[in-house]
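Summary for the funding panel

The consortium committed to producing paired sequence-structure records for every protein in the target list. Below we show the first two records in order, beginning with the earlier of the two.
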Amino acid sequence: MAKIFKGKEVADALTEKLNTQVEALRAAGVIPTLCIFRVGERPDDLAYERGATKRAQLAGVEVRNVILPSDVDQETFDRKLKEVNEDPAIHGILLFRPLPGHLDNERARQMLNPAKDVDGCTDLSLAGVFTNTKTGFPPCTAQAAMEILHHFGVGISGKKAAVIGRSLVIGRPVAMMLMHENATVVNCHTRTIDVPSITREADILIAASGQLHSVTREYTNPDQVVIDVGINWDEEKGGISGDVAFDDVEPYVRAITPVPGGVGSVTSTVLVSHVVEAAKKAV
């Protein structure tokens, strides 16, 4: 049976550290503030918003919401985003994407001030990940995976790591973050031939393909740590499940994160930590 790496334990430990930092900022007259910028009512956006709001409140971070209708025009959207971008009282902006099809996603992404881009979506933030510098912030889910490995004492330096998925949200940035900590990394994707033969050799496997239960026991080995960042709707279960077929893999590997209950709460807490860091830089 695997050790279950529960996200709440990691998130609570991070929140405890944040509380001390937020108290010091408030004592100095600075109130760390996150702006949640949402267009429409997508269920996945609403779920993440609830989690992020809860984690912000636990850490003492203020949350402002800018909610626009799904049919908002480009001019209004741009004006509202510019307003929060230039508001000195707002330290971080969470912009939910993808935006509705009639809005320019790329333009919105690049409009964000990297200093407030707490979800790590601008080119400058991503460049900071690849160069291992403090430019902007890394994508929250990628950092959450790393925080889980650190919290549970999983050795990274010199280890083999496999990442399934190459998105800019998680796959590529987490591969770079593992490499910065001296792991040997293989980034698998849809064109990779015989993925299981590669992932079976890994000490650490990060599943980020966005494909329900696509990672089965044949992808793993008994000494492996598996981080499942997938969030997929499971019709059979009637709820959320991960990329990993948990019931098949969990009895076989050394450690695994569950879905739900794994990476999600850590991702929200990392977002809040970025707001606090941005507020400290703004002092």
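The next record, for a separate protein in the list, is shown here:
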Amino acid sequence: MQIYWTKINKIIEETPEVQTYLLDLPEDFTWEEGSHTHFALEGFNAGEKPNRSLIRHMSISTLPHENTIGITTRIREQCSEFKDALRKLKVGDKVALFKTHSNVPLRREDKNVYLLSSGVGLATFRPLVLDYFERADHVKQIHSLNIDSSKDFLFTNTFKSVADKKFTSLFVDNREDYYEEVKALAADKEGLFYIVGSDEFLLQNMEVLREHGIQPEQIMLDKREKGREELLSSVYAGHDSMVETK
């Protein structure tokens, strides 16, 4: 396993609770849209076994051509040991990256794509949208729907509707409006539905989509194959749909 050590070159306060850490780009470090990485703080590998309290899975919110690795995360006043340590880091401090992988690359199948996210989960989708803006081949259009009860919506410069690019974006701050929108989107029986958020959020969205005729193979989750299959099975098992994994 290769560990890439790099430095923080900028810290952006996206909202009062959300920070983006922009990291120097290590030589030979590559990734694609929709990627996540293991993000670790100094000392995580100092002992015989890795200190898992200093490691988290984090989505990369930038694309390679931006020449920086963006890690966007919410840090509340009451937070974990990891987030507390992260909050104390400064520009120039070292962090480690390893085991980078994408579970949600942009599927170019001449269909509409729907991006469903909660809060900072939007960071996973920013690279997909930027990739689509650069090359819209075989994607009919993209619609982003994000729920954030804080009302401090993220990446509003990127997530704004652009008619000539066939991109629409909607932010809502309550569950009722959000799930009404999901039901409306599910009228597209050929669409591709990407979902990012907590497991509870994933399950709730999949329940709504299943009830409105969306099949498992149309759903993309930011999970490895086994985890994706388990979540899909928990929603679709016992129903007419057969669970398929991509």
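Regarding this second record: Confidence is low (pLDDT under 50) at residues 241-246. The chain has two domains: 4-101, 111-236.
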